[in-house]
Sequence to fold (674 residues):
Amino acid sequence: MADPTETYIELKDGAFKIRVLQAGTGAPLVYLHGAGGLFWDPLLAGLADRFAVTAPEHPGFGQSQGLEHVPDLWDLVLYYNELLDTLGIERATVVGHSFGGMVAAEIAANNPERVDRLVLIAPIGLWLDEHPVPDISGIPPADIPALVFADPTGPVAASMPAPDPTDPESLLMAVNSMSSILQFIWPLPDKGLHKRLYRVRAPTLLVWGAQDRLVDPAYGPAFTRAIDGARLEVIEGAGHVPQLEQVTATRAVIDAFLD
Amino acid sequence: MKSIFFHLMPYRDLPDDFEQRYESVWVTPPNAELCDPVKVAQYYQWNLDELELADQLGFDGLGINEHHQNAYGFMASPNLMAAALSRRTSSKSAILVLGNTLALYSPALRVAEEFAMLDCMTNGRLAAGFPVGTSMDVNRCYGITPTETRPRFYEAHDLIMKAWTQPGPFAYNGRYNQLRYVNPWPQPLQKPHPPVWLAGGGSVETWEMAVNHNYTYSYLSFFGYHFAKRLMDGFWETSERLGGTFNPYQAGFAQQICVAETDAQAKEQYLEHVAYFFSKCLHIPDYYFETPGYRTRRSAEFAIKTGQPGEIAKIATLEKNWETLVDTGMIIAGSPATVADRLTEACKQLRVGNLIALLQIGSMPHELTKQNITLFAEGVLPKIRGLWADDGYEHKWWPQGAEQPATEPAPVAGS
Fold:
């Protein structure tokens, strides 16, 4: 398994400077990360065996810059169009996790011609009154593992990167990264995606951890009802990040869908 | 020096185990469970009576502010309180609404209208406070996207100043306020507009705005004058860096004050209520304070690198016994002579000409609050009033009508 290359892509005369991880050869696949950040995990490594994987970091997240040039969701969708143009990707399979799943769904709804197949892993973007998505910035940080992981005390939960409280740069980056996500989901992560999902034409797979306490698995059927022909796979023993907690099972359903 | 009696309007009867049972005094304290409207009806009467007493006893100004879903200050609309005060206070005292949280109003023209109304109703006694607001109020209670907090604040400020100073009607094409006809009736009585008071908790941008626009800056914290020193120094350094001229009247700070006949009596009478304030009223989780994106990247960097969150956390863990509270300056307490001495020292150290005196603290009951106000007015105010008087500074930020009513003053009720 090859390590990904890390490059920085500039757009709009340097208004955006975006960290991009790339590996593999084959048909293009774009991966959009969630609020946990962009890192090369076993899912991406596996996908790179079959696809030319491109994983851009969200503007304003981590080392990537340009948040101030995408004040709202509409700007963000247009930005992704330009990013794909810049990367020379006319059409791709798009995989998105959590917030990245919401962005992937918006791209697929806005530009159905650019999305070959769509994989949404525990996406946000819809709102069900009976299953409110918790405010991740409004709870004690120590409570987050119990929402995100099926096993909050297990090895996967323990391996998640956390800012170093003694390092101001690390704290600052964590604050800036979270603010770049909140900009598009505040105060509730419903920005009208439900009105646009009917436009998605790509064959679509929803993947949900059965023990997801952050975005309830009830959102799975809400997505499949709204996207024509979409299918839902529920992974037992996984929370909000099934690709880390149940690597094999998650890869299996995604691989089968992409065959 | 100007002394302003400032009222937070707290809930005075939170349960004894409030801080153990509930997550926060702000945003989420369950209203149906904790906030009894019958009690609140009584509190509002007391609060207004206390403000009116301060006016009668000669305070220079009366101060109020805006918070939401907050048990230490349930004054969701300070403008309603100011309207009540406009009719029942003398023509001498300024009414400082510190202020309206601009980012919450869409269109922000509403603030221009209500402040202009109040300016007319008070015969030009209004100081117009423009706080950025806390993350609790702006982002959590009113749902404003954290990264829009500052942009909305700046745009609202721009719209309000134009609405007050440019003849209407005109169009305003903002990002958050798009109006075809800006033409508020009336514009303010004070010309060119009521003095603008900014309030903040140490954001670099607010200091710069105060200097660049020649507004006052008030540091509003509950941690007292020792803690305020570094942040007020930051303001004065910013002023110097940007070519401002030093004038103590351009700055204010808030201080909790307890006055009794003797130092010993102060502890005996006030400790319980001050402890209530620090243990219950500041029971706010830090993740509410600093929603990511609420501070600009620049101010977040400044706050993190100067250790502001750490410093506040350190204060939060201090044992709040009387001696600690007095030694750290979180409260200034004692006999009128003691309080006057320490306030003089504090205002000189911070170089401020506006004292925002917090004299009703936590659960402090009505009678004790009246004592505090009265002893301050009679024993402290006369001793600190002359501070800065001989230094030749002009107070350019005091409401014009507070000294010279522009029209015949309204009759004072009860006089």
Summary: DSSP finds 16 helices and eleven strands in chain B.
